[in-house]
Specification:
9 strands, alpha/beta, nine-stranded mixed sheet, single chain
Amino acid sequence: MSTAAPAVAGPADGTGPFDDSFYVPPSPLPEGKPGDVLRWRVSKAGPRKADVQAWQVMYLSTNALGKPDAVTGTVLLPRGADPKTAPVVAFAPGTSGPAFNCAPSSMINMGAFYEQSGLDDLLDAGYAVAVTDYEGYQPDPKTTYVVGKSEGPAVIDSVRAAQRLTAAGLSPDSKVVFRGYSQGGGAAAWAGQLQPTYAPEMKLAGVAAGGIPGDLVQVTLQLDGKFGFGVFAYALIGLDRAYPELKLDSFLSDNGRAKLAEMQKSACTFELLTTYANQKIADYTTSAGYIQPAWVARLNENKLGGSPIKVPLFDYHATKDQLVQFAQADALHKAYCSAGVQVTWKTYETDHITGVYDGNADVLAFIKDRLAGKPATSNC
C-alpha cells in the first residue's frame, strides 16, 4: 500500500507524512479532544477523483477501554456541495480484513472499495461523507474488529474530524446520519447508542444499519467449520487486541498461531472468505479459551441493545444471511422496539453478501427523509 510522495508536498497536499508512516499514531498521543485532527493529506478518491474533494485524516478517538487512541479515515465532499450547509454521513465500512493494506482509506484512494456503490449514493446526493478505518490500521496492524466499544467512538469521531478539518470547511452544526452494513452495521448501531452521552452536541438525524452483528456470541460460534470461519477467527484477534487480559495466544496451537499471523499479514475480506473457509477452531487452539469468563464478560459488554438509540433507526437484514445470524438480528430489532426506538425494520430474501448492495436504495431513501426533516414511520 505504499504511497509515492509528491516531489514537493505543501500545505495544499496536507500535513503528511506522505508515505505509510501516515498511519502510525504519534507516541505519545498529543493532548486534545475526541475528533481533533492530528494530520491529513489529499486522497485520490478512486473513481470519484474528478468530482469530489477527499482527504485522508488521522483523528483522536476513544478505545474500548475508554482511553484516547488515534484512528484514520477519509473525508469526502462533492465539488458542487456547499460545505457550510452539507450534511455529514458517517459511512461505517463492512469487514475489510486484518492486514494493513486492507484499510478502507487505502481502498477508497485506489478505487478498490467494495462498498463504492453505497458511498456513491451519498456523494451523488450532495452529502459530505466521513469513512472511518476503525482503530488499528497501521504497518503493524492492531485492528479491534467487531468490538463495538471501539468502533462506535471511531464512527462518531470521524464526523467530528470531518467537521474540524479546515480544508473541508464543513459546519460543526451540520445534520448527521450514521450508516453501515455488516461490521459497519454494528459500528453504526454502537455509534447510535453511544451518541447521546459521548457526543450530545451532535445533530444526529438518523441511523441506518444493516446486517448487524448485535450478539457476538451468537454470530461467531455458529461460523465454526463453515464458510465464514475466517470472520470468527478475525473476531478473536479483534477482541484480543482490544482487551489485553484475554490472552488469545495462551490457548493457540502452533498451527493457530501461524495461521492468525498469516491472516494479519495478508488477508483482506476476500481471503477471509476463501483461504480460511470451512476451517475449525479446534485446529487453531489447545482449549476453548474463548468461552472462559473473561471472554464472555467482554463479549457481553459488546452486545448491542442495552441502551436505546434516540433517533429513528432503519434496521435491515438478509433472511438467508450465512455470516451474521438472522435470529440474533431479529431479536435486536425487537429489543430496540421494546426500548422505544423508532425502528423501521426490513428484511430481504437474500444472503449476507448480496445484502451489501440490496439495501442501498432503501438506505438512501431513509437518509434523505431524515435529513429533510420528515417524520419517521416505525413498524414496531
